[in-house]
Amino acid sequence: MEQMIIRNVRPWGADPVDVVVEGEGIAALVPATTAPAAEGVEVVDGGGRLALPGFVNAHAHADKSWWGMDWVSYGGEATTQGRIAHERAVRGRLGIPSVDATERVLREFLRHGTTAIRSHVDVDLGVGLEGIAALHEAAARLDGAVEVEVVAFPQDGVIRRDGVLDLLDRAAAEGAASIGGLDPCLIDRDPVAQLDGLFSVAERHGCGIDIHLHAGGDLGAFEYDLIIDRVRRTGLMGKVNIAHGFALGQLAGGRQEQLLQEFSELGISWSTVAPIRSAPLPWVAMRELGIGIGLGTDGVRDLWSPYGDGDLMRVALDFARLHGVRYDEDFVEVARLATSSAARYVHREVHDIVPGARADLVLLDAQNVPDAIVRAPRRALVVAGGRLVARDGEVLL
Questions:
Q1: What number does CATH give the domain 55-346?
Q2: Which tens digit of pLDDT belongs to each residue from 197-218?
Q3: What angle do CA 390, 54, 293 make, to 5 degrees?
Q4: Which tens digits make up the pLDDT trace of 55-104?
Q5: Is 316 exposed, middle or buried (0-12, 13-18, 19+ CB in 10 A)?
Q6: CA atoms within 13 A on the CB side of 31
Q7: 3-53+353-395 CATH pick, 1.20.58.220, 2.30.40.10, 3.40.50.10490, 3.40.50.150
Q8: What 3-state class would DSSP assign to 368?
Q9: Contact 64, 97 (CB under 8 A)
Q10: How far is it, in rounded angstroms, from Cα 397 to Cα 379?
Q11: From CA 112, how far away is CA 126, in angstroms rounded?
């Protein structure tokens, strides 16, 4: 078994230690030393840097980026329906999805310190399951440095396109960890049919559901109620995630509190990309109730938006700003949302700098965790699965 010692690092800003790695996992943390290592053991000098677990991107769209291509000007209407139509009209000309384009996105994630992603992958009548195959092949090219979990995502709607539910069923049968959904009221305009269809597939295959909800206010709350009811009836506790869910931060106290209690009871989690004009989430109450919150990059330079660079630390900074974070302990909690607390989004029992965890570490030139979030400095070193995979922002693979 290959061995590595990552010397003189400060996990979460604590006292310096050496991280002993065996194979893909962390074997031990020992006091920092300069003693010679045993023959054959690779030694990586951490230089006293701050060490964080590898970032976990809980909401990506790695299959649909034009990163690395010539600039693509924004076109089409700036509505959900408009973006769907524009993407369907243009993606073929850009060769989306493709293995090469997806690999370029994964490399951007990796050089910024992301070592695990949960990626929504478009599944529709035009591309079938090609995007899922492209994502798996791209990840294989990086030899598993970025571990990927697939959400088969019906970006063009579920019920309004005959055959999409069959594609989702096939994706789940072939190993997709989750199936997605999209705005049951606004896109399909038949929330009962969409949700019944999705929950039927999830029950049949034992997969999760990760559903995009953009509706605000009472309409968004109504969709939450429908999902809660179906989780109770199907017993899919702990297997449903709501992405975006903009309505939650807009609801009045009593209604919000009632929903939070039900989310907690049923293990319904949340993922957000912390858009700057959205209503802040009740994230402290969610944390106290054990409701999972994951951070994600969403799309990176795709046909929905020209923004994004794959850096989850910048998303953490946006989250901190949106929620008015000021105190050191709250900055640390935000960093945990992007790292250790996000283990559930990629089905890991533990994801941290502790013995027994996969050896995924990010080293940064920062005094402490708050300093790292506020400045988002270049990643000095990235270790993934016990291998040094990036240095000074450049992927070594």
A1: 3.20.20.140
A2: 999 999 999 999 999 999 999 9
A3: 145
A4: 999 999 999 999 999 999 999 999 988 999 999 999 999 999 999 999 99
A5: buried
A6: 1
A7: 2.30.40.10
A8: coil
A9: yes
A10: 16
A11: 32
